[in-house]
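User:
I would dearly like some help making sense of a protein record. Take your time, and here it is.
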Amino acid sequence: MKFIMDFKADWHEILKEIMRNEWGMDTKGLTTDIPVHYFNAVQRRITARRRTLLISDTFQCPAEHQAGWDFIRQKVTDGQDLTPHLSKLINNPEETDPMLNDWGVYHLHLGTDIQNGFARRTGPLLFARVTDEHFYAVDVYSHGAWTESEVVETVHRNWPESVASWVMHGVRGDRLSDTQRAALRKKHTNSFFLTKDGTTYGPIGGGTAASGHNISSVFQMDVEHDRLEALERRLVEIKEDVMPELKKAGYTDAEEVITKLVLTEKFYAALFPDYQLQISFYPRDI
């Protein structure tokens, strides 16, 4: 008896279903590296949850956009969804965000009227770092200020502890012009950031892979692929233990048994759809 399974392919379909059904994305054009697109999309979104709002020492919002800033800050403290203020390209699974990959900084539109799921687009944009616990309001910048050095300088000056993990010890980066940094990003090339006080940072946003996606997206895909391959091997190892349960469920002498991957928040499972049997695995069992 042989298990017919491809847990990686099953996982890819699960991720595509999430992207389609929960985020409204068109995934028809996605044929390879589905997890990279999925994790890239996760990174570009901001999970709705209450956060502590922190405002930089140089923050200034133009008077004509004060209502928009008040609107966003209320959403931040209340834990409301900020998706309407993100780029409309947020629903494009193949879109990437070079500034977010490089510096871990989001840009949000300051419009107050929501139409078709998005706030009115604004020229000035709110730049902010966002973690699970904090919303760091850096400042309001003009549209296109994606490589403005003062963005990182402001984060470093106000909240150095929040980016301490990316300090490069024993290494000194070069001070790049905004134009130079834009050119490097266009080529999906990572670079260090040298602050005015001589601190060197690696890519605070995690860095960019050759494809333009965040490096962590590729890393997460590789880690999960390894885990799923291990799960398939484990299932083969315990085949003799599974056989009695399969027989109880109606298995006789079929040479091949179709096996599908099932995911829950707490465990992985191998589903035998022809026999309505499911075997669960906790991560420690793999």
